[in-house]
Amino acid sequence: MAYIRTRGCCACGRGINKGAATCHRCRRVPCGDCGKPTKVGLCHACGWYRSRGVSPKRLSIRSIITENPRLTLEEVGQAVGTSREYVRQVVVMDRLQRIKHARHNGKPVKV
Q1: What pLDDT was estimated at residue 1?
Q2: CATH T-level topology, domain 54-111
Q3: Residues 6+ apart with CB under 8 A from 16
Q4: Fewer beta carbons below 10 Å: N end or C end of the chain?
Q5: Residues 93 and 43 sit within 8 Å (Cβ to Cβ)
Q6: Tens-place pLDDT, residues 37-85
Q7: Vertex 46, ends 84 and 111: CA angle to 5°?
Q8: Domain segments of the chain: what residues?
Q9: What CA–CA distances, in Å, run from 70 to 21, 46, 85, 95?
C-alpha cells in the first residue's frame, strides 16, 4: 500500500511514477503528416518516406488512380508493373479515393 501512495496521478487520472509529469498516453503527440499518435514528431511510415523519398511506382499509381478512380487494382498493377496488393497498400496508406464496384458489369477501361 505504501508504494501506491508514493505514486502521483496524471491529469487524466492514471497513476504515474514518482517524478513523472504525465502518463505514457498523455505524452503522445500526433504525427506531423498523418495525425496518428506517436512518441515523436513523425510515425514510422511517414519518417521512412521522408528519409528515402517516394518511389516512382508509387507516384505513377497515385497519378493513375487520381485520373481514373474506376480502374480495378489489378488493372493499375498491370499498368505500373506491380501486384494488386501493392496497389491496395498504396491506396490505403496515401488515402486515395477510389470508386469501388463501379464497373461490376461494365467493360474494362484502357489506361
Answers
A1: 45
A2: Arc Repressor Mutant, subunit A (1.10.10)
A3: 7, 8, 9, 10, 22, 23
A4: N
A5: no
A6: 777 777 877 777 777 777 889 999 999 999 988 888 999 999 999 999 9
A7: 30
A8: 24-53, 54-111
A9: 51, 27, 17, 15
